[in-house]
Amino acid sequence: MLISDCTIKKVKISTRMVYKMDWCGSMTDKFTGDALVSMDVLLANQGEIPAEGTLRAVFTAPECRGFEKTVSSRAVTLACGEELVKMSVTIPQAALWSVWDYGTPNLYQLKLEYGEASYTCRIGLKEVAFDEKHGKWSI
């Protein structure tokens, strides 16, 4: 069970904001301030026997938010070859991404680890929506 034979080949990340229905007020969805990050992680085991380990995701927030990090982990037994592993993490009180024209583009650092394999990237938390009534896209 050599986890050192494993690599992180590809990562697909999608984000969406968390909304909650205002049942006692306007009956509309209100943004809770949280964001849901979903990850599809393609792991590869180049060894000859299955590997057991923990896939760990660590989100480090922008310095201005006073929020340190969010950590999620999942036990994974990886057979020989490639396997797609899905994970999701809720980021509390998310600092949303914006373009430079409208303020600071808050970017989180994501670090994925599986054994000795690691993957690091910076992501912005945002949601793209289409208003069917008016025919407009928004971020």
Question: What would you note in describing this structure?
Answer:
- The structure is a single chain.
- The chain has 139 residues and is mainly beta.
- The chain has no helices and nine strands.
- It has strands at 6-21, 29-45, 51-60, 69-78, 81-91, 108-114, 117-123, 129-131, 136-138.
- The radius of gyration is 18 Å and the shape is elongated.
- The termini are far apart.
Spell the H/E element sequence: EEEEEEEEE
Q: Largest beta sheet, briefly?
A: 4 strands, antiparallel
Please work out how many helical segments DSSP would assign: 0
Principal-axes shape call: elongated
Low-pLDDT ranges: none
The percent of residues in helical segments reads under 10%
Strand content: over 45%
**Computed CA radius of gyration, to the nearest angstrom:** 18 Å
Rounded mean pLDDT score: 83
**Widest beta sheet: strand line-up:** 4-3-6-7
C-alpha termini separation:
45 Å
Oligomer: single chain
Structural class: mainly beta
Would you report the number of β strands? Answer: 9
Summarize the structure.
The chain has 139 residues and is mainly β.
Features:
elongated, mainly beta, 60% strand, single chain, 139 residues, 4-stranded antiparallel beta sheet, 0% helix, 3-stranded antiparallel beta sheet
